[in-house]
Amino acid sequence: MASLMLSGTGKLTLLNSKTPNGNEFSFIGSDFHRNSLSFPKTSFKANSRVSSFRTIVAPKCSSSSSLSSASRPTSQPRFIQHKKEAFWFYRFLSIVYDHVINPGHWTEDMRDDALEPADLNHRDMIVVDVGGGTGFTTLGIVKSVDAKNVTILDQSPHQLAKAKQKEPLKDCKIVEGDAEDLPFRTDYADRYVSAGSIEYWPDPQRGIKEAYRVLKLGGKACLIGPVHPTFWLSRFFADVWMLFPTEEEYIEWFQKAGFKDVQLKRIGPKWYRGVRRHGLIMGCSVTGVKPASGDSPLQLGPKEEDVEKPIKPWVFLLRFALGTLAAAWFVLIPIYMWLKDQIVPKGQPI
């Protein structure tokens, strides 16, 4: 039944606007009913809805201090938003990832919809898939790009072992590495893709800065990730488990890293009917273009997490257990929402 839960996303319309600091960005939205939506160029409150659809505005602040506050720093719980916890989390999750997680949260039609803004339009493009895991997203990339030109990077050897077993990916380069410290030279790739990885980054701004660095002039980054819930219980479990950014945060992180033409496209299963109350593990696709060669103009301090620092085993086990329990909530959400979609009359928000 789970494989039937997600079956598509809606048609989209593009809204061009500007942030308060003058940087242009675009927002692409869908009501998941295959009806186009268009919004006037004005501001809405964060929880307002148009046709049962939550709108998005550009970030109101541009200072580094305001970003730190807005992005809910790692001192908050988020028990799996650290590399060591994520490593062991995927040590076990990798066994069932393709069969349990993808059918409920990340299906082929969602993947192809999310990759569309990346403009993977040439077989000879150099593409890095950061946090590529079992290679599910990479399977979408190699539809348009020769596998020999694609590198899959992940910190989890257990996830990468699954990717190596997939025949279409046999010519891809497989690399163990850190999304916040990529082992690629500056101005290396034509496209940067990362799906379902940012939620585990202790310092998401650093990861997006790295995306900027490794791209060539005119290259495009495509980052696909979760969106923050508005329903209080889902918001609680999200903030306990891992990073669920707001749409405003994605846009601001890209702009601060130096990207231009920043666009955010909402993706999701049609049974959400445009309402993001419970959040989505795969909820948006954000793209940006590198306007100049070289490193990002953004300067950052030391990394948030020192993976070499000793940890207390009992503290680690407690964090891991609590994070895993919080994750279980988001295994139940697709089942709950699918059932509601069967019961609530079409056209009504759920």
Describe it for me?
- The chain has 10 helices and 9 strands.
- The radius of gyration is 19 Å and the shape is globular.
- By secondary structure, the chain is of the alpha/beta class.
- It has a 9-stranded mixed beta sheet with strand order 1-2-8-9-7-6-3-4-5, with helices on both faces.
- Helix 7 packs across helix 9 and helix 8 runs antiparallel to helix 10.
- Helix content is 32%, strand content 18%.
- Keywords: Membrane, Methyltransferase, S-adenosyl-L-methionine, Transferase, Transmembrane, Transmembrane helix.
Helix content: 25-40%
In DSSP terms, counting alpha (H) and pi (I) runs of 4 or more, how many helices?
10
| CATH fold type | Rossmann fold
Mean pLDDT: 76
Tally of individual domains: 1
The radius of gyration is 19 Å
Element pattern in H and E: EEHHHHEHEHEEHEHHEEH
Low-confidence sequence ranges: 1-25, 30-71
- The amount of beta strand, in percent, is 15-25%
Task: Give the biggest beta sheet.
Answer: 9 strands, mixed
Structural class: alpha/beta
CATH class: Alpha Beta
Family: Belongs to the class I-like SAM-binding methyltransferase superfamily. MPBQ/MBSQ MT family.
Pfam families: Methyltransf_11 (PF08241)
Protein name: 2-methyl-6-phytyl-1,4-hydroquinone methyltransferase, chloroplastic
Keywords: Membrane, Methyltransferase, S-adenosyl-L-methionine, Transferase, Transmembrane, Transmembrane helix
